[in-house]
């Protein structure tokens, strides 16, 4: 659906760039209908996100509803259907939408930095635990190794004629 709408939009842009003014001016009504359909599709998407419990979908839905309302007003105004407000409202709706999207983006960055800070603290704690584990493991591994070194030294001394053998090497504890 999105690709189809994108191709239709490219077709409208192509008519503006390639065809004479009279031709694309006659197509402006179709452009308005496609624009309204796209905006309704956006509203459907944000309503679906709100229904699925997505964060901040309500705020974005509100922003898009205001923008769609201003777009509908301006389309009706350009067709001489509204005469009581002599003003184009889409720029104001767009500014509100951009402000809402900026707030949402700032909220997401704040949450991301908060998550990064929490994960960093957890990684530091896990690194400390790893260091303690390696220190304990190293100590535990060195103790039998030093016994083996003593036993091998004793065996070397025994072969050289000395008769001293440590108790740990004989199996007597």
From TrEMBL:
What class does this enzyme belong to in the EC scheme?
transferase
Gene Ontology MF term list: phosphorelay sensor kinase activity
Q: What is its EC number?
A: 2.7.13.3
Task: Give the reactions, separated by semicolons, that this protein catalyses.
Answer: ATP + protein L-histidine = ADP + protein N-phospho-L-histidine
Q: Which residues cross the membrane?
A: 33-51, 58-76, 82-100
Q: Which residues form the 7TM-DISM receptor extracellular domain?
A: 2-107
The superkingdom of the source organism is Bacteria
Recorded hits in InterPro entries, A to Z, give: 7TMR_DISM_rcpt_extracell_dom1, HisK_dim/P_dom, HisK_dim/P_sf
Membrane recorded as keyword: yes
Q: Which Pfam families match?
A: 7TMR-DISM_7TM (PF07695)
What name does the UniProt record give this protein? Answer: histidine kinase
